[in-house]
Each structure stands twice: as C-alpha cells, then as structure tokens.
Design brief:
This protein is mainly α. The chain has helices at 5-24, 34-70.
Length: 96
C-alpha cells in the first residue's frame, strides 16, 4: 500500500515547526559589560598560555624518551625558540 504524499512529509514538517518554535522562545542575550569581557579575554589568554607551556613540556618529554629508546644523543639543554623580528615597514621613495 502506498501512502499519500502528505503523510510522507508530515514528520519533517512537525520537527521543523517544533524546532522553529523552540528557537523563537529563546531570550535575547544579556548586554556585555566591557570590563567583564576584558577580564574573560585575559583569563582565556592565560589559560591558553598555560596550555601551550604544558604541551611544550609534554612534547619535550616525548622527544627525550624517543631519543633515549632509539639511542640518539640528547642535547644538554634545548634552546628556546628565537622570535623572528618583524621587518621594517616599506616607505615609499620621496620625490625631489
């Protein structure tokens, strides 16, 4: 037995209607306080820095273990990465 076209689309329409009603009833987000936003941004930056340092330490431990297991010579102390200096901005040639 073949169902009419309406009954095939009914579940999709019901789900779409329910989702649109649920989204329509969400309250507007509260206004953002600039001081609070700056504090949250600073905390996120500190957390990212700590996470990056922890990742670097973990990677160093893995490299040391790998070199130890493979019998490779290890460096006495790893040299910190040297930051690349930004190039001076190009200035246009002055006309006489």
């Amino acid at each position: 037995m073949k169902a009419p076209g309406f009954w095939k689309w009914l579940p999709a329409l019901l789900v779409g209607g329910t989702v649109s009603l649920a989204l329509a009833k969400l309250p507007a987000p509260p206004p953002v306080d600039p001081a609070k936003a700056a504090e949250v941004k600073q905390k996120a930056a500190e957390a990212a820095k700590k996470s990056a340092e922890a990742m670097a330490r973990a990677q160093d431990r893995v490299v040391e273990r790998y070199k130890k297991e493979k019998g490779m010579p290890m460096a006495a102390a790893a040299k910190p990465a040297v930051p690349v200096k930004a190039a001076a901005p190009a200035t246009p040639a002055k006309k006489k």
